[in-house]
Amino acid sequence: MSLRIMGALVALISALIHLWEYFFEDYDSTGVGIPFLINVVAGIVIAILLLTWRNWVPLFLLFGFGVLSLAGFIISATVGLFGVDETWNNAMGWAAMIVEAIAIVVAVVAAMTERRGMLRA
């Protein structure tokens, strides 16, 4: 499986997790409701860009998407974010953290692999 396809899948999975939490775990009425919807849209757009645009920009966006989403959860679980104090025993939160960590690793490895391929050519 191509690293770009894997990156697109993890971006979509993260988007779906945030969409689920928005609608079914009552995040729509909290301060993180709008950022969750932005995360959904960003995940879909990044997935499309990864599959259609052979450039370093989608990989950079995937990296930033993973870092910012992961940081948002950690901040929410430690000191609170926009009035939400997340807990560490949230299964969907852990699933999102794992997927976002994978997104970071995939983005870095794909960028390094593609750069190495360009240098050889």
Overall description:
It is a single chain. With 121 residues, this protein is an all-alpha fold. It is built from four helices and no strands. The chain has helices spanning 3-24, 33-52, 56-78, 91-120. The chain is elongated and about 50 Å long. The mean pLDDT is 85.
Order of secondary-structure elements = HHHH
Q: What portion of the residues fall into strands of 2 or more residues?
A: under 5%
Structural class by SSE content: mainly alpha
Number of helices: 4
Helix content: over 70%
Distance between the termini: 22 Å
Q: What is the multimeric organization of the chains shown? A: single chain
Shape: elongated
Biggest sheet features = none
Which blocks of ≥5 consecutive residues have pLDDT under 50?
none
Strand segment count: 0
Taking all Cα atoms into account, the compactness measure Rg is 15 Å
Let me know the average pLDDT: 85
Q: Layout of SSEs?
A:
Elements: H1 3-24, H2 33-52, H3 56-78, H4 91-120
Summarize the structure.
With 121 residues, the protein is an all-alpha fold. It is 79% helix and 0% strand.
Features:
121 residues; mainly alpha; 4 helices; elongated
